[in-house]
């Protein structure tokens, strides 16, 4: 066997040549001359396309003006009290709220046995009731 007698095991795949026209010949289905017949043609946007491209301002009237409050349940406050008090600083320290969050509200989910004093944090009616029933108070 000689080197010139070697043949590849698999035949070479033939690449498809795209856009070479069909039975009609020269123009390749692009019509006659003009911008649309050239390669890489890009027409300027029409007014309708520009309008469609802009984002639509849906529901702007219904968006709330203020931020939503971060919800903390009274069940989460049970082991957090330092000297019987729970403040915004303690909640930030323990990671229950982010430092940037402006609003916090305590809701009545969960149970609390120890008396705590809630300072500077608004609470729901059910949360106030549960805290006062445990011997604490909301300031």
Structure report:
By secondary structure, the protein is an alpha/beta fold. It has a domain of 69 residues: Ribosomal Protein L15, Chain: K, domain 2, CATH 3.100.10.10. 19% of the residues lie in helices and 10% in strands. The protein is built from 4 helices and 5 strands; from the N terminus they run H-E-H-E-H-E-E-H-E. The strands form 2 sheets. It has a 3-stranded parallel beta sheet. Strands 1-3 form a two-stranded parallel sheet. The protein is elongated and about 95 Å long. The termini are far apart. The model has no long low-confidence stretch (mean pLDDT 82).
Write a compact overview of the structure shown:
The chain is of the alpha/beta class and 139 residues long. 19% of the residues lie in helices and 10% in strands.
List keywords for this structure.
single chain, about 140 residues, alpha/beta, Ribosomal Protein L15, Chain: K, domain 2, three-stranded parallel sheet, two-stranded parallel ribbon, 4 helices, elongated
N-to-C SSE string, H for helix and E for strand: HEHEHEEHE
Beta strand count: 5
Percent of residues in helices: 10-25%
Major β-sheet annotation:
3 strands, parallel
Give the strand line-up of the largest sheet.
2-4-5
Distance linking N and C termini:
100 Å
Tell me the overall shape: elongated
The overall average pLDDT, rounded, is 82
CATH topology of the domain at 70-138, which one? Answer: Ribosomal Protein L15, Chain: K, domain 2
* Percent in strands: 5-15%
Rg over C-alpha atoms, rounded to the nearest angstrom: 36 Å
CATH class of the domain at 70-138: Alpha Beta
pLDDT below 50 for ≥5 consecutive residues: which ranges?
Answer: none
In CATH, the architecture of the domain at 70-138 is Ribosomal Protein L15, Chain: K, domain 2
Tally of helical runs: 4
Given the helix and strand composition, which structural class is it?
alpha/beta
């Amino acid at each position: 066997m000689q080197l010139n007698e070697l043949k590849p095991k698999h035949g070479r795949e033939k690449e498809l040549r795209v856009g070479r026209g069909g039975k009609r010949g020269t123009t390749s289905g692009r019509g006659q001359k003009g911008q649309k017949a050239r390669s890489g043609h890009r027409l300027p946007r029409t007014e309708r396309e520009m309008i469609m491209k802009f984002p639509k301002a849906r529901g702007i009237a219904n968006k709330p003006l203020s931020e939503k409050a971060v919800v903390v349940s009274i069940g989460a406050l049970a082991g957090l009290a330092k000297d019987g008090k729970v403040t915004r600083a303690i909640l930030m320290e323990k990671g229950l709220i982010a430092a940037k969050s402006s609003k916090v509200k305590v809701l009545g989910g969960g149970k609390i046995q120890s008396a705590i004093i809630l300072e500077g944090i608004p609470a729901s009616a059910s949360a106030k009731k549960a805290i006062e029933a445990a011997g604490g108070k909301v300031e």
